User: Fold this.
Amino acid sequence: MELQRGVVGDLASMPALRDVAVEQGSLLNCGRLASAARRAGVPIIHAVVSWRADRRGTFTNTPLLASLAKNPEQMLEGTPAVELIPELGETSNDLLSKRAHGLTPFTGTDLDATLRSLGVTALVPCGVSLNVGMLGLCLSAADLGYELVLCRDSTVGLPVDYGEQVIENTIAMLGAITSTDALVQHWA
Assistant:
């Protein structure tokens, strides 16, 4: 979820989120999960965001989106900001689900159809942030009938203790909570 240079990479528009993702090891753990998934033949779909320069097709109806949209360079399609972070390794055989609107990756995108075409019934979401995007992803996935396995160390929110509360008090009611190490070992 949004493991892009303009979100948590070197071009992050919210440096505090990037900094905590780096400090907590979340980005490296996402890379470890991606590598283990590829070795195990588990499909990877990157849920990414990219906006047109004129913002057509992009809602700015929330304080978060309105604030981000004020930056004319924010997540523009075709720019380095929308590229995946290098911690994910070689991504050329992975799939992308792009959105130009909204806060979560299922609404109005091809994500559900792509997952179903691959025969996927369980998701291992990772990325940012537990405040909005990851929480929305998990809620939508559960609503759509997917099983969830969340590696608590492959996601983060701000403040960190709030993110932990989201995992413990909400996401734990939607699926299994584990660690990157445990899932990597399972896939091996």
Remarks:
- Residues 57 and 144 are 24 Å apart (CA to CA).
